[in-house]
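Morning run. Coffee first, then this:
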Amino acid sequence: MKKSNRTERATSIRRSALAPVAPRLFVSSAHLMSAGSQQLSEFEFGLILAGNAFNRWVVRCMAAAGLKDMTTLEVLLLHHVHHRGREKKLADICFMLNIEDTHVVSYALKKLVAMKLVDGERRGKEVLFAASTTGQRYIERYREVREACLVAAIGKERTSNERLGELAAFLRFLSGMYDQAARAATSL
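And here it is:
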C-alpha cells in the first residue's frame, strides 16, 4: 500500500471517529418506522417492555403476598375495587381502567368473589363490588411487599418521585392520544 493511501485511510478513520454517531434505536417493529416516527417506535417498544415487566411484577408481588395463580387483571381489579373503600359498579370499574370488554372484567370479578376476596351485592339491576375483609388483608400484605421490593429501590434516587409523577401525566396524555387514534382507525 502506498504511503498516500495509508495517510488518506488514517485521515478517514480519524474523521469517522470524530463524527457524531447516530444513537441506535431499540424498536420491536422496524417495519413501522418512518422518518417522523422513530422516537415513537422506540417509545412503543419501551412501553411493551415496561408493560410486560409490570404485569410480571404484579403477579409475583401478589404471589409473595400469599395469593398464587392470579392474573394481572384479577390483581388490578382487587386493588381497584378496594380503592377509596367505596363499592363500585362494573361499568365504573371498566371505565376507570379503560377496559372495553366488560365480559372479561365480569368473569374476573366472579372469580374474585368465588375466592372470597371481593363481595358482590345486587342492588336493583346493578351489582356493587367491594373488597372483602380477606381481600383487604391480602392487599395490605401486597403493599408491604411492594414497599420492601419496589418502593425502597426506587426511593434511592431523590428526584425519582417527581419524575414518576411527570411520566404518569405523560402516559395519561398518551392514553388519550391512542384512544383518539383508535377511534379514527375505526372510520378508515
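The helical segments are 3-18, 38-64, 72-82, 90-97, 102-114, 133-154, 160-186. Good start to the day.
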